[in-house]
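Issue: ligand-bound run for S-adenosylmethionine - logging full I/O for the record.

Environment: standard queue, default settings, no custom constraints.

Inputs:
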Amino acid sequence: MTADPYARIAEWYDLLLNPVLDGVRRAVADVCRAEGLLRVLDACCGTGRQCAVLRGAGVACVGADFSPAMLGAARSATRVARPCERDASSGGGCVPPVIARPSGMSGSVPSAPASPPSLSPLLLPSLSLLRADARVLPFADNVFDAVVLSLALHEMPEPVGNAALAEALRVAPRVLLADYRLAERNLDLPAALFVHLPERLAGAEHYRNFRGFMARGGVEGLAHRTGLTILRRERLFGGAGALLLAERGSRAG
Ligand SMILES: C[S@@+](CC[C@H](N)C(=O)[O-])C[C@H]1O[C@@H](n2cnc3c(N)ncnc32)[C@H](O)[C@@H]1O
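Outputs:
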């Protein structure tokens, strides 16, 4: 992973996709609130929109991503800080606005620091966004209540997705997986077919990984193979996607 696959689209990502994806972000925030998951890592945070929505809902969120372009978009004050500032001015509790963390990370797979930081320093404004590979998160075990992996697993080769999921379950006991699922009934088919269009437009490698992910049963297949216990399930994208709240099952390592 040398070139940034999001370099060309990062600037346009929110404009094009927020109308579709904001429903997912609200669903994630609703589940966090309902389940008392108040310290959350968004491990492939992209432009940081999910973190902003979580913060607006009173959930502390740290965002991590390996794309410098997406993190650049996330660091723009209009995209990340505004919901937080609005809450703060109306008296609501809020993690301070995001400021970039000095990264010093050069390669595509950053190495974890010798002693992972505890959660409280991470909630300082200067540390709430960072560049990291989801397979190698620079956090101690179980330091978060939950890790969000939203619309990221389907674009990863299988070993990368498995490693990212295992790493998420190291730093938190629960995961929130928002991704594509197989159509369950005929009514789901139009949406399930439609999602091939944006996935195809995202490029050949992206589409190959998406098709592999779907051939292995989508997000439900991944949860099943990993032996996760699903605690909650919400439909997304007219049945073409699902939001799963899950934890390590008895089979999961
Ligand atoms: C389709 S975007 C989704 C972004 C965000 N979760 C959302 O819902 O808008 C996928 C994101 O996953 C990130 N990503 C993919 N593989 C990653 C990895 N191994 N480690 C960290 N981030 C990764 C990409 O850089 C990109 O920002």
